[in-house]
Structures are given as C-alpha cells and as structure tokens.
C-alpha cells in the first residue's frame, strides 16, 4: 500500500468504492400478511440480503394487485406484484384505473389458479347455482376481486341473478365459509394455498369446475386468462378440476434504473426455488415463461438482462 504512493492509493480506494457503491433501496408492494405475495416479497428481500448485492428490498404490506399498482403510480414504492389482468388494465388506463400508469414488467413469476370453493356436502354444484347466495369475492384493492367480478359476469350472475358479494380477504373468506356466513369463496393463488389446505382438513370442500368460462373470459377481456388444472391430491381432491389461470408479474416503475433491475433479476433467477417455495408447489421460473408479459412492456433493464443472460 505504501509503495503505491498517494495517486495509486487514491485510485485503489476509488476502485473499491465504485465496486461496492451505494446500496439502492427498493420498496416492493406485496399483499396482506400470510398471503402468497407477502411470502414472495419476504423471500425476495431475504435472498437479496443473503448475497453480495448493492440492493435492499423492503416488502410493503398491501391489499394486493389494484392497491399495488396505485402505489406505483403514487411513487410510494418502486416494485410491485400484480395479477396480469390488473397490470394490463393499469397500462391501458381502464377498469379500476382512470388513466394509464407507466409500469414495466420485470418477469412473469408464476401462475395463479382460480379456486371457487363450496362445502362438499352443500347443495351448490355449479357456479350458476349461486344466484342470490352470499359469496366471498376478495378484498377491496385485490386482483381476486377483479377476476371474481369478471367471472360472475360471464357466468350470467348479474342483475336479479347476482350473488350477494362479500368483499373479504382470504383469511376472512375462509372463516366465513367455515361458519356458513357465505356459501362460496373465490380465491386466485398458488397450489396449494395453505389457508385452503387447512380448511380442507376440517371441512370437506368441493372445487367448482371453471374451465368452461375460460373462452368467454378471453373473448371479453383478452388472452391473460388460460385453462389450467387443479391437480388430484391437492386439498384432498380425488380427481383433477379444470379452472382459470392468470399470471403474476413482478413490476417496476419505469424510472427504476436499469442496473438495479439487472441485479434484481440476477437474484430472482438464481434463487427462484426459494422465492416460490411458500407460494406455489412445483412451479419453475424459466426465461421463456418469464418474458411472457402480454400487454405490459418489459423494463429496458429486464430486456438487457434477458439478452445478456440467455441470448
């Protein structure tokens, strides 16, 4: 060190400082405590902390998708998780959003499975049989509520056939179904969702088939919806049940610097097993899947990351 002289020592210290650099703090809007978005955000923060990164991820509890996009717009967070249908609404300034929000996608991280749940020993065997009945349709500000409203509309449960919608989050929905306050609950999340697995151990459940509504949903709202299957064995199911799938996006404000996005995606792809462990079983995160963000444009930093990492 002494042999370097003043100029050499200054250059060395400058090099060390530029390599370490300041830590960039990114707040990530997730979802309610105990939900899959919250689990993903917490795991992402832990993965970043465990590595030698110039990032800090701060999970922020929210009501989920709609609330998250609004927080991005208000600039109170830099990152967010949201369902694909809500994210596309935000980009185009429609439905819950009065104007377009300049949001960019980093990755499609996993697929939600729609759960339309009723007691197995009850009288309800189809979605349309719920006309006039109380149904838990998701919390205010959640993507579940958006999807539930669209599903009920294409099922013809409007006007004098409308369900009596109860705007409840997952925990409250589970309690309401268990006590008989509602006749059904709608949930969109990974498989298995722990709260529903716990409920299935004490209350026999029936999962209503929804695959027949995928076509009408796509015709009316676009290709963000797909046909997926709840597998046999999940929640004690004796056979698979067709349902509706919708992707979940990791999003950022358009002004988040490209180097921060590239570094974050390095963590996401290196640690995806840890990120998805408590969110959805059996999922994989692959580049060809991750870049499928529909009408939500990729962040330039994400484009650069995928090109440099995968060609």
From TrEMBL:
This is TRAP ABC transporter substrate-binding protein. It comes from the Bacteria. Pfam families: NMT1_3. Transmembrane segments: none annotated. InterPro entries: TRAP_TAXI. It comes from Streptomyces gilvosporeus. SUPFAM superfamilies: Periplasmic binding protein-like II (SSF53850). CDD domains: PBP2_TAXI_TRAP_like_1.
């Amino acid at each position: 060190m002494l042999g370097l002289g003043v100029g050499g020592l200054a250059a060395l210290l400058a090099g060390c400082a530029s390599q370490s650099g300041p830590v960039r703090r990114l707040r990530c809007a997730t979802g309610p405590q105990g939900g899959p978005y919250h689990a993903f955000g917490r795991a992402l923060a832990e993965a970043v902390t465990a590595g030698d990164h110039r990032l800090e991820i701060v999970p922020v509890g929210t009501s989920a998708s709609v609330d998250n996009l609004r927080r991005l717009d208000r600039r109170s967070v830099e990152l967010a998780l949201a369902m694909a249908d809500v994210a596309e609404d935000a980009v185009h300034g429609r439905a819950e959003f009065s104007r377009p929000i300049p949001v960019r996608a980093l990755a499609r991280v996993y697929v939600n499975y729609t759960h339309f749940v009723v007691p197995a020993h009850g009288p309800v065997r189809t979605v349309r049989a719920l006309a006039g009945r109380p149904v838990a349709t998701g919390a205010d500000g959640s993507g579940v509520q958006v999807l539930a409203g669209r599903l009920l509309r294409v099922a013809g449960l409007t006007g004098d056939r409308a369900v009596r919608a109860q705007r409840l989050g997952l925990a409250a929905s589970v309690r309401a179904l268990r006590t008989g306050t509602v006749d059904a609950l709608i949930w969109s999340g990974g498989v298995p969702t722990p709260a529903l697995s716990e409920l299935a151990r004490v209350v026999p459940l029936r999962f209503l088939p929804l695959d027949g509504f995928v076509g009408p949903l796509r015709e009316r709202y676009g290709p963000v919806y797909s046909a997926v299957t709840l597998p046999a064995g999940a929640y004690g199911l004796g056979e698979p049940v067709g349902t509706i799938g919708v992707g979940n996006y990791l999003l950022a404000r358009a002004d988040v610097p490209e180097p921060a996005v590239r570094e974050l995606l390095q963590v996401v792809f290196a640690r995806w097993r840890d990120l998805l462990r408590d969110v959805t079983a059996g999922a994989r995160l692959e580049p060809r899947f991750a870049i499928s963000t529909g009408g939500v444009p990729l962040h330039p930093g994400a484009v650069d990351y995928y090109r440099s990492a995968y060609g």
